[in-house]
Each structure stands twice: as structure tokens, then as C-alpha cells.
Design a protein that fits this description.
Length: 216
DNA sequence: AACCAGGAGAGAG
DNA sequence: CTCTCTCATGGT
């Protein structure tokens, strides 16, 4: 069922080529800044950081907190996010940079990332998948909403890990590639932004059960 | 003018 | 483990 949804989304929207960032570190910054925040606001903040040439792990920690806060203000929660950016930057530096982190074992790396204050499950998995190219699936509010509306899950607030396991076991069965992991999450976001947000039950959505049965 | 957006941490039960 | 509260800006 889940694999079928992925194929369906892919056929509707095509490849998304996520994450929208120029460098792996920009992915990390975006992952923090987009926490419960519209992506358009994140773009403004990242643009500000670029103007001040602060988009590297070495440049963030020495920057005074008030400066950092003012630059990322458009994303909201700017006081905590400024700290979070410093925490993550220091973590990356202490571990020899993102290139070095990439070599580590996935499960161990995920645990280390989750210890960083400000990096929760979704943020960690976004970094692992899109900045470090690890085969892991990212669960977000869109995923929960879509799966619930498609009847894949019974409650909308299913635990994060059980959902991730659900997708990953299905993906392994189909020998999914790294690109498949990246695309599926990107497609869910694309789809929910365009359709799911305004249609409460996905009635007219091409992905609704009835529509899927008709079209396939 | 309320409502929400690609969450996370801290605390309580 | 499962709620509940807080953090905060900008667009519709």
C-alpha cells in the first residue's frame, strides 16, 4: 500500500530533487529553522545568513546570540533556534565535519544527533537523509496526516518510530534506493501543500482509496 | 482576525 | 509512553 502511494505520487508530480539547499550544512540549518515553521520564512532567514556569510559550522558559534537571533527572526522561535544552531554547529565541528560524520554507523550516529539539544527525531532524520545521504525515512506532520486520511493508520498521531518502521520495512522489501527515500518524503510534502491542506478528507484527492483503485 | 506552518524540550500523570 | 504547555513570526 505504501509503496503504491509512493509510485502514485511519483507519477503525478515527478521527481522533486530535494532538499532545497546548496550545501549539506545548509540542509542542517534549514532542518532546524523549519521546525513548526513555514518554509517561506525559512528561506528569508537562510538568505540573511548567506548575506552575512554565516552559513558554515565554523562561523555560527562565534556569532553573538543577538545577531544570530535577528537574522533568523522570520522563522519564529528565534531565541531557541539561535541556540539550537550553535549546538548543532559545535556538534559538527567536534566530530570533524559533516564529511567525517557521514562515515559513521547509522544507528550510532542517529543517537548522537538526538543528544544535541534542538535536534529531535524529524530534524535528525532530515539531516541523516538529505545532508548525510543515509537510507532513513523522515516522518512529519504531513506524513501522519496523509497516512491517516488514506486509512493506512488508525490515528493521526501515531508514534514517530512506529511510522518510520512501517515505511522503512516496506521500502526494504522493494529494495528502495537512497533516492526513493528522498523522493517519497519530498512528494508527500509537495502533495500535502497543494492538496491535503484544504481538503479535509482527501475526497477529491487522486490518492484517495477509491481514486487509486480506479486509476490503477 | 483567527489559524497554522516540513517540531522540540520540559514537566506531569 | 501519552498528553499538555511554551516558544513566535508571517501569510491567508
Amino acid at each position: 500500500m505504501i509503496w503504491k502511494v509512493y509510485q502514485k505520487l511519483l507519477s503525478i508530480y515527478g521527481k522533486q530533487n530535494w532538499w532545497p539547499a546548496e550545501t549539506p550544512f545548509e540542509v542542517c540549518v534549514g532542518a532546524i529553522l523549519t521546525q513548526n515553521t513555514n518554509w517561506q520564512n525559512v528561506e528569508k532567514a537562510i538568505e540573511n545568513l548567506k548575506k552575512h556569510n554565516l552559513l558554515s559550522p565554523e562561523k555560527i558559534p562565534p556569532t553573538p546570540l543577538p545577531t544570530l537571533q535577528s537574522l533568523i527572526k522570520p522563522t519564529g522561535f528565534y531565541k531557541q533556534k539561535a541556540k539550537y544552531l550553535k549546538n548543532l554547529s559545535l556538534f559538527i565541528i567536534e566530530n570533524g565535519g559533516l564529511e567525517n560524520l557521514q562515515k559513521e554507523n547509522l544507528q550510532a550516529l542517529r543517537k548522537k544527533l538526538l543528544k544535541v539539544k534542538g535536534v529531535g527525531r524529524e530534524t535528525a532524520d532530515s539531516i541523516l537523509l538529505y545532508a548525510l545521504n543515509k537510507k532513513i525515512f523522515v516522518i512529519d506532520a504531513y506524513t501522519k496526516r496523509l497516512f491517516y486520511r488514506l486509512g493506512i493508520t488508525k490515528k493521526e498521531n501515531e508514534p514517530y518510530e512506529s511510522l518510520r518502521t512501517l515505511v522503512e520495512t516496506e521500502f526494504k522489501r522493494h529494495n528502495a534506493s537512497l533516492e526513493d527515500y528522498k523522493e517519497f518524503h519530498a512528494l508527500i510534502v509537495r502533495h500535502c501543500k497543494e492538496v491535503c491542506r484544504k481538503i479535509p478528507i482527501c475526497q477529491n484527492c487522486e490518492l484517495s482509496i477509491s481514486c487509486m483503485l480506479k486509476l490503477n
